[in-house]
Specification:
The structure is a homodimer.
Chain A (H helix, E strand, L loop, with lengths): L13 H9 L2 H12 L2 E2 H5 L6 H13 L3 E6 L2 E6 L1 H12 L9 H13 L10
Antiparallel strand pairs in A: 1-3, 2-3
The structure holds a DNA duplex.
Chain lengths: 126, 126
Amino acid sequence: MGGAGPNGLPMTDPLDHVFAALADRTRREILTMLLEDDMAVTDVAEPFEMSLAAISKHLGILTRAGLISQEKRGRVKWCKLEPDALRDASIWMQSFGQFEAVNLDAFERFLEAEIDGPSGGSDRAD
Amino acid sequence: MGGAGPNGLPMTDPLDHVFAALADRTRREILTMLLEDDMAVTDVAEPFEMSLAAISKHLGILTRAGLISQEKRGRVKWCKLEPDALRDASIWMQSFGQFEAVNLDAFERFLEAEIDGPSGGSDRAD
DNA sequence: GCCATATTCAACCAAACGGTTGACGATGGG
DNA sequence: CCCATCGTCAACCGTTTGGTTGAATATGGC
């Protein structure tokens, strides 16, 4: 698969794709939209002022990075957030993580409260 | 440079620079090296198989992203890791890692409290 | 003062990026 | 069957990226 560089390390790290995908505001906004719900390509494109083809390319980049998945049902292609790839990148970043400022314990407590809490949560429109 | 887009949002988010800087294996390796110790430019360049000028450019990109700082002492320029910029990106990513269909308003309140809170606000060294 | 060292600058290059447009293949509805 | 809709493909364009080289600019040692 991936060729190996002189160090024995792969020449293209999956992190390359993840971070490169995140380095664009449009794509980050798309991810934020998909956080709320799965969406069709056309609906993803709607709020943006660029062509459908451009959004299609962005979605391809996000897919290649593993940040989303796309499933075609009928003539509609549904886009779905895939948080696992982000988790890998997040883990990489935490190795730098002095993170004095952010209290990760508090963050985890917050997450648990949110997920267990308010409305039992997942009412996805499938 | 920082014009405003049609949404009133800035056209170039600081996160653009951070993620773009991280999207290159060489730069990630440089950050890893700096994790252990501050280093001079020449020493940073030594293990790589590219020119010193190329490394100098990479360091410029990392500096522009706020991921490192450079201080010239004598004729040597010392490079130092700046974890704060990474913290912001990490916080952004965490919103995707663990959330399913969670209350984003509460998440934003959490972030504001965390960022404004513990150390009297974000004092970025630009 | 002179020379070696440390780092950047400037010009150049190929490749990738982000966007456009227009044509094209699927698919589903009346 | 016909046609509108969904989405991608292909070609093109200007800009950015990641690298090279060679010259230039500090700075420090002797």
